[in-house]
């Protein structure tokens, strides 16, 4: 009998799902629009139907061990999506209970950055690590912490909001209502804002002067930097400097073995890693210098959100073994 | 048979020790000078002798379950004190192994702020809490994190150095070698530095103008503030503003139920709690506002360092039960 899990990533526009084995092979996948349903129950029914169709196609010698879901504002403790700003359904959505009732398997829900952290531990570059951080660089900056081998959820289930630490209390406006949050500088959107700031401040010619804010993306900035564009290169330097400074603060909180960078901005490679590592080291308390790895995530592919979500189920039975190993260390 | 533990707090000048029961009653206590011995082995022998004399006086129906030690640069994983700057013995001191060999019971070593956090959980105001932070405000600013019910040690055993997050990269010189670290503003020393800065900047009369930096202490500043001294009041406001701003960053990392303030500065009460809470709330990501308690430590007495250290032993067998409770929540 082969054990499988279902991973579901609920985004504001699309919901991706897949059926995954322990090695991270995706046996079946698909997606449904998140926005097509006025009622949450109707959206849930469409998703359940699509999943059941996928399950029906599986070979006989397989079984579904559970369902993992990554969603903004997903609460690990309650299994509810709570007041998500990226979804049209208001209030508290008891998703984990609904899946459990429908499919009679455990359902584990958390936010997308936490799912990415567990995904890195189960399938990625954090295998065998017990203390690490995953930073997801997308529209915003998400973070997931694993401490002592366990996902850090915090008391209210909302730990890991490093994107909302402060760079400058009078800085850029943030969606959260504050100003100067880290994610307004360090994210796909943040680096675009930095390019526009640099174009405003400086006189240098730049190929980016011909591109509107809406059209601009990280890949364009990265390609321009590789062609020697001064503004594009300065934008990465500026972004890495701020990320490095703030990672130095994160490090002294939880003392991780490694920090993984995930997402489009991380795929700019040396352009972002070099200034990030340099400024993290320069700003670290000396006791920590040279000890903390900053590494690319191994989950840089289309299926990453599905894998991250599905990993929550593998992490669930594994917890017992982890806890016992940890105890045996004494 | 009554179970007891030994708690030892190794400071730069004095080593305090005590024999403690599960309720936090200190049955026997004493102290030996830390500085009297050129050789570490000779210091250890003196301490072992003093402890044995204490053990010999215990009633027959008691037994020692283990030894807990709090010491700057104490590493929980290795049981070594590693390159402590406040001790005269250089290099790596294998203290936990030496105690284990001498007394044939487990010995658990960690730094003093971590010991304070476990002490708060075992004897103090954090009973039944699984996610909280203790901030110790002494000569410096120490911090201990409990996450998911476990002390957070981090990968290298040095987690919780919140005192060395940055307030201002060009700010006050710090013992760690950096500038502008939180503890240069928020600690017994930090508030003295702030008083001196305010006396330099302003013209207001202040009773603190007649006191040298060496003679000045938190209690004097607190008493002056209660008598309406403008500079003393402003010093607490300034200190609380910086602490509140930085606690807002700590909160979004680990999402604690509560933050406990411990030490002389915390005993200034409202003078420090009011501005700290006000500025923490103002700087918090809105999702967290109104959710995080900032509370005084219950461990504000002479025996606190001994109790904190002794609590490490009670926490050790309790871990299994905690882990099982935690698993049963699913």
Task: Describe how the helices and strands are arranged.
The structure is a homodimer of 330-residue chains.
Chain A: E1 2-10, E2 14-21, E3 26-33, H1 40-56, E4 62-71, E5 81-82, E6 92-93, H2 95-103, E7 107-110, H3 112-122, E8 132-137, E9 141-147, E10 150-151, H4 188-201, H5 218-226, H6 230-254, E11 258-262, H7 270-283, E12 293-296, H8 304-328
Parallel strand pairs in A: 1-4, 4-7, 8-11, 11-12
Antiparallel strand pairs in A: 1-2, 2-3, 5-6, 8-9, 9-10
Describe the structure.
Two copies of one chain form a homodimer. Chain A is α/β, with parallel strands linked by helices. Chain A has two domains: 2-120 and 302-328, ATPase, nucleotide binding domain (Nucleotidyltransferase, domain 5, 2-Layer Sandwich), CATH 3.30.420.40; 129-296, Nucleotidyltransferase, domain 5. The first copy, chain A, has eight helices and twelve strands. In chain A, a hairpin with a 4-residue loop joins strand 2 and strand 3 (26-33). In chain A, helix 4 (188-201) packs across helix 6 (230-254) and helix 5 crosses helix 6. Chain A is globular, with a radius of gyration of 20 Å.
């Amino acid at each position: 009998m082969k054990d499988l899990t279902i991973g579901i990533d609920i985004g504001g526009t699309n919901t991706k799902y897949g059926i995954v084995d322990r090695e991270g092979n995706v046996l079946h996948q698909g997606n449904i629009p998140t926005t097509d349903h006025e009622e949450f129950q109707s959206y849930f029914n469409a998703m359940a139907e699509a999943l059941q169709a996928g399950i029906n196609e599986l070979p006989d010698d397989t079984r579904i061990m559970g369902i993992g879901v990554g969603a903004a504002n997903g609460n690990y403790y309650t299994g509810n999506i709570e007041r998500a700003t990226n979804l049209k359904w208001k209030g508290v959505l008891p998703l984990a209970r609904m899946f459990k009732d429908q499919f009679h398997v455990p359902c584990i829900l958390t936010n997308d950055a936490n799912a990415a952290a567990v995904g890195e531990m189960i399938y990625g570059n954090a295998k065998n690590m017990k203390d690490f951080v995953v930073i997801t660089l997308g529209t915003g900056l998400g973070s997931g912490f694993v401490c002592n081998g366990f996902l850090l959820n915090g008391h209210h289930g909302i730990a890991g909001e490093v994107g909302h630490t402060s760079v400058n209390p009078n800085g850029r406006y943030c969606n959260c209502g504050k100003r100067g949050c880290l994610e307004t500088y360090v994210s796909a959107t943040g680096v675009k804002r930095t390019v526009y700031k640099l174009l405003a401040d400086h006189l240098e010619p730049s190929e980016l002067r011909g591109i509107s804010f809406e059209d601009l993306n990280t890949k364009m900035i990265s390609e321009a930097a590789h062609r020697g564009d001064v503004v594009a290169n300065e934008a990465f330097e500026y972004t890495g400097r701020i990320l490095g400074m703030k990672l130095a603060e994160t490090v002294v909180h939880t003392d991780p073995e490694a920090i993984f960078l995930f997402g489009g901005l991380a795929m700019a490679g040396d352009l972002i890693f070099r200034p990030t590592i340099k400024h993290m080291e320069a700003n670290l308390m000396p006791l920590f210098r040279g000890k903390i790895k900053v590494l690319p995530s191994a989950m840089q592919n289309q299926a990453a959100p599905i894998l991250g979500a599905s990993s929550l189920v593998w992490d669930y039975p594994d917890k017992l073994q982890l806890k016992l190993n940890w105890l045996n260390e004494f």
